[in-house]
Design brief:
Helix content: over 70%
Shape: globular
Distance between the termini: 17 Å
Largest sheet: none
Radius of gyration: 21 Å
Strand content: under 5%
Mean pLDDT: 84
Order of helices and strands: HHHHHHHHHHHHHHHH
Number of strands: 0
Number of helices: 16
Structural class: mainly alpha
């Protein structure tokens, strides 16, 4: 029996933006966690930003790896709700939270126990920066359950058609992070002064608090979906099918994160001057840029349940048009953010880090001048990829992203950048921007051709 929700009926533009805008704001709030940490530790002196930057580059790998499984949950859950199969939707949501628990343990092992070798990979020339980076990454890794459960509870909520509750959870967690981190970094209100490590502990505590609140909200029930507490403990009987659907999306997202990780290492090797100064400047830019990217991911997060519910209700044409609306919204928002950042980049960077060295500012300006124009195209590609995920075409997006961001981008940058003399980092940035543009074009062609509409499900 098919049901009609706000996603499968009503004014198209209005309904897509009502779903997408709160999610874009919510994902923007996800990106604020590390930026808040970075801004606060910047007052501790040069090098502190580099410590947080390293952790901020590594941790999204775990976040986005699990996000693939989260996306699979959204697609299956939305399809079940769109077809009126409420008991199946309840079971999928409960199993996904159990899976979040297993993922938390794996991330604790990978990022907690592996903090030192991961930080040392960047070959930073400052021992204090390395030690702070190890402490930050280890604490964040061991406490990653908060981030993962926030990701999963908000995914379940948006699959149920709620955009406001995910936003409330993320905004609340960011406010709590601001309070906890300030106290622990600087030793306020009788708390110990922990410096960079305090930023990590404050974030972990804030995320765990609101992860618990998210689970309690689902136990109470939202939009007809109510989880059973006893069913949250136990095995994961359909783990194989969830992995089969979610793993391609995880690998797709991981390919993008790993490519950025490696591109920064290549650019750092080619830069002339201090490695920590380079990471201070570029690190600030990456975190600011990621705010725009997270907005695009928010519109993409809306595309997945929108497509899944409309396909489940037999509304393929509506699904196709709605994703184009979300892609346009992402391109506009990311383009405006990029323009504002370029226009005010110097006062923004110096405002965030007053002691930013001229060498760091030059590296930041070089990075922004090349990559900011590619932001709208990046947003289009992200949303269309998530639309394909909502249609169940996860392997298509996986193959395309791995092919572009690992198979093509890495050899391209390693071949071209070393031949440009002192312009090596800029050449790396141009390679990244070019691949963003190609990805947007290919995803547009795939979506417009519409083969995803007739895929067997």
């Amino acid at each position: 029996m098919k049901t009609h929700s706000a996603l499968t009926s009503g004014p198209l533009v209005r309904q897509t933006l009502l779903l997408g805008t709160p999610l874009a704001c919510g994902m923007l709030a996800h990106g604020l966690f590390n930026l808040v940490d970075m801004v606060m530790v910047a007052r501790l002196g040069p090098g502190a930003v580099a410590s947080v930057t390293i952790g901020g580059l590594i941790l999204p790998l775990g976040f986005l790896l699990f996000d693939g499984l989260s996306t699979a949950t959204v697609e299956r859950l939305s399809r079940a709700l769109g077809a009126g199969r409420h008991e199946e939707a309840q079971r999928i949501a409960e199993e996904s939270l159990r899976l979040a628990g297993f993922a938390s343990l794996l991330c604790a092992c990978a990022f907690g126990l592996g903090a030192r070798p991961l930080v040392e990979f960047f070959a930073i020339d400052n021992a204090a920066v390395v030690e702070d980076g190890v402490a930050y990454l280890a604490i964040m890794g061991y406490g990653m359950a908060g981030m993962i459960f926030i990701l999963q509870t908000t995914a379940i909520l948006r699959a149920a058609g709620s955009g406001r509750w995910p936003l409330a959870i993320l905004v609340g967690a960011n406010i709590a992070n601001l309070v906890f981190a300030a106290g622990l970094i600087y030793g306020l209100a009788g708390l110990p002064r922990m410096g960079v490590a305090g930023a990590a502990l404050g974030t972990v505590l804030a995320q765990l608090l609101f992860a618990v609140l998210g689970v309690l909200l689902l136990l109470r029930g939202v939009n007809g979906l109510r989880l059973r507490g006893r069913q949250l403990i136990g095995g994961v009987p359909s783990l194989r099918s969830l992995l089969a659907q979610g793993l391609p999306t995880s690998l797709q997202l991981a390919a993008r994160v790993v490519s950025v990780f490696l591109m920064l290492r290549i650019a750092r090797e080619l830069t002339q001057g201090s490695a920590s100064a380079f990471m201070d400047g570029v690190g600030l830019c990456v975190r600011l840029e990621m705010l725009a990217v997270f907005m695009g991911l928010g519109f993409g997060a809306a595309a997945t349940p929108f497509v899944a519910q409309n396909l489940g209700a037999g509304e393929a044409q509506r699904a196709g048009r709605g994703v184009w609306v979300l892609a346009a919204a992402a391109a506009i928002c990311m383009g405006l953010a990029a323009a504002a950042l370029w226009w005010w980049h110097e006062p923004v960077l110096l405002g965030l880090m007053p002691e930013l060295r001229p060498e760091s500012l030059a590296a930041a300006r070089n990075y922004l001048s090349v990559l900011l124009p590619f932001m709208p195209g990046l947003g289009v590609g992200v949303v269309l990829a998530r639309g394909l995920n909502g249609a169940g075409s996860t392997r298509t997006a996986m193959v395309l992203d791995i092919g572009l961001y690992l198979v093509l981008l890495l050899p391209l940058a390693m071949t071209i950048a070393p031949t440009t003399g002192g312009r090596g980092p800029a050449a790396v940035w141009w390679c990244i921007g070019g691949v963003h543009a190609v990805a947007a074009l290919l995803y547009s062609v795939l979506w417009q051709r519409g083969k995803w509409k007739t895929r067997k499900r």
